[in-house]
Amino acid sequence: MSIDAAPESAETPKPSNFIRDIILQDLQNGKHGGRVHTRFPPEPNGYLHIGHAKSICLNFGLAQEFGGKCNLRFDDTNPSKEETEYVDSIIEDVRWLGFDWEDRLFYASDYFEQLHDWAVQLIRAGKAFVCDLTAEQVREYRGTPNEPGKESPYRNRSVEENLDLFARMRAGEFPDGSRTLRTKIDMASPNFNLRDPVMYRILHAEHHRTGNQWCIYPMYDYTHGESDSIEGITHSICTLEFEDHRPLYDWYVENLGIHHPQQIEFDRLNLTNTMLSKRKLLMLVQKGIVSGWNDPRMPTLSGMRRRGYSPEAIRQFCANIGVSKTNGIIEFSLLEYYLREDLNARAARVMAVVDPIKVIIDNYPEGETEQLEAVNHPDHPEMGNRLVPFSKTLYIERDDFREDPPKQYYRLSPGREVRLRYAYFITCQRVVKDPVTGEVLEIHCTYDPATRGGNAPDGRKVKSTIHWVSAEHALDMEARIYENLFLAEGGGDDDFLASLNPNSLVKMAGKIEPSVRTAPAGTRYQFERVGYFCIDPDSSPAGLVFNRTVALRDTWAKIDKAQKPKG
RNA sequence: UGGGAGAUCGUUCAACGGUAGGACAGCAGACUCUGACUCUGCUUAUCGGGGUUCGAAUCCCUGUCUCCCAGCCA
Question: Are A180 and A194 a contacting pair, CB within 8 Å?
Fold first, then answer.
């Protein structure tokens, strides 16, 4: 019984935002001929994470809403950091999230020749020059926030000399870092981006697509606007840190006299206790702190997919977090809310015990087995029923028994009667303990045969219903219980490794009802009263492995914690 | 002590000169063969100071705080 057996939870209408308002206004004014064309422009230097999902949903969502188009374009101008593996993963992840770029899969590297020609055009117009300053010298010449920069001594080379030098840069005559092509703008500008920014640098590196065809590579600022322009992008949506780059973006398309898309900046996603820096995520992978980019603890889309997140839940989250220019941090519980909302509506229910303790029904016949009927989803009768085996020896959750029940605890304890879900009422008679450690080893109970199926003919009530599995029939499983990778709210911004959560992964030896035996990896379930779980790719019939996607909300845990504030 | 941007419940988004509203979180109940789900109710906010106006979160002035920018990264 897979999650897909249930209908999708409805996606509610998205709230508006300032970018949508701008587009609405542009449409009204007939700007861009009434077209809406966006793009999602990842650099293939890492895996996509939940922060990218916000951008993907925004760009593709806006295009969808206004009958426009959204391209997928790789911003691959730095061969030293980019790899095909990342390209492949990004394509897979955007698709998985549920978006389609049709035949519009592009690469900035597709435009290298055009970009080069435009650079020549700028040189001819006296607006670009080849500079022989070293990287350190360029930094010194750039000035500081308080003082203007100094002009490069090479700034006034003749057009002919610049043309010649640039051609030789391309031809590979010069070593890495020896020269750059720079735009001639204004070394006194208060905006550093306009202090004669570098357009091309020399990099004798193999590019994942163009191989060794080039040894000069264009910089982001020189590439991005033109790529947008070539593709006929109308609204170029990016994050806040590019606000200072907009004047340069505008400068290039204006001075080249080409189609001028409008750059609009919005706030990137921040999530509590979550680190969303590709650089640091890469470090976690390289240091082996996580098992890979798709470790279920990673905030990457591939990690979340493996963990059991549904694309619908992520989309719903992205649609509701809002888009603004405020630098904020979203509480992780909001993501979990949308996750649970989707999973609750769709995941088949099953009984599994994550931390088992043995229960023996003393008055139940030895060797007997009954098949008891359980519903697969309380809200979806069409998902059907299944039979769950019951016998004399069972496992229940260790946490569902207390020898000394605290106030408001109404699960199993000595002398108390509870219901075994879909089965019988049982009453705890006594416990067997380890004589040395005092640990409870077995709980002995009696059952009331008249309560078969879970209802008492005399109408008596029990305070609690607990889940169980039959010891003889249950399957062994490993339950991987995850918590946030980072303890610090900011995701450990500063010394992020110091903030690592030592309990981010705990493996439990659990037991699960046999109905899941043949389910494929990726199947999502609700373990009743415990949480949502998903079969991990590591799982096999010989060794079932489940990832806890998210726990169920747990009111009792709150009460319990409040009662003993030590925690 | 340059430039750019932003400040509204604990968090986040809205209100676009006319009753500060929603979501999450929290708290209290109801319901329940999942202490889940669902439902009901409640608490809590306009960064400070001046103006303009019948009326200001919104307009003006001023101050404060936060974020981003000195890669041949994106």
Answer: no
